[in-house]
Amino acid sequence: MTRHPQILRASLVTAALSTASLSGLAQADEVRFATPPWPGATVKTEVASQLLERLGYETSVKEASTAIILEGLVSGDIDVDMALWRPSQGGMLDPRLESGELAEVVHNIQGARFKLAVPGHVWEAGVRSMADLAEHAERFDHTFYGIEPGNVGNEIMQDAIENDAYDLGDWQVVASSVTGMLSQLEANNNGDRWTAFLGWEPHWMNVVYDVHYLEDPEGLWGDASTVSTVASAEFVERSPNVVAFLEQMVVPIEVQNAWVHAFSREERPLEAVAGDWLDANPELVSKWLKGVRGADGSTPSPESP
């Protein structure tokens, strides 16, 4: 069985999506994933991809921003995205659901969090809410640390600044990357310097660091987060067997935390993290595959999906 991981950097995806090689409809036994450059989403997508390849499907995975991925789903160049966060990215998704272009298959992680956070020593000093930030602006250097430019979390923080929410009008957002933001957290993870940063769970940051999520009385970050698997409407119609699998692939938060820790913190190879986990967890894999058949219509054996 030939693997086609094809992990592309976001700078290449925009051009790639416009080429003839990606245009048109995929074959019934082909699944084209895309993922934003987040460790949790990357490993989760790789796990799904490897499991489908064990069932006889051909898969590919492209890396891009959520905005590019949604356009690719609508245009038919991408089939599945497993990393759409609600409510923070709902505004990007809902119009496409209402138009019938896309389908929300399942909330693959429930009880997730995606909002502004501070390390433990800042929390213990009394910063428990976004309403507490302005009073300590100097300690934070009037700065929020976000991730990649264009991320919805960055935009929520920037909107707070522009609207002077919580008296934050003189603050700034530093957009970087997941690695850059966590490096800043690591550098400031002591009692002398304070950091306000975009945090989320599941992620290994919640295991390695003492992360606390700030209360948000004005509701800028919306309700409790979930993470959705989203597919093009055409793919849902074309590949009901794969959709049946995706509907059942709901990942416990502690499992994805462990994936991200192994891949991003321990720096184990992506394919090894996913493949070793699949081999070691037949019980959960069997639940995901209940009633699902191989690409050739066969029933997978319990021992070797």
UniProtKB/TrEMBL annotation:
Q: Per its UniProt record, what SUPFAM superfamilies does this chain match?
A: Periplasmic binding protein-like II (SSF53850)
Q: Where is the signal peptide?
A: 1-28
- Which InterPro entries does the record match to this protein? ABC_choline_sub-bd (IPR017783), ABC_Gly_betaine_transp_sub-bd (IPR007210)
CDD domains, per this entry? PBP2_ChoX
Q: Tell whether Protein biosynthesis is among the UniProt keywords.
A: no
Q: Where is the ABC-type glycine betaine transport system substrate-binding domain?
A: 30-279
Q: What is this protein called?
A: ABC transporter substrate-binding protein
UniProt source species: Halomonas llamarensis
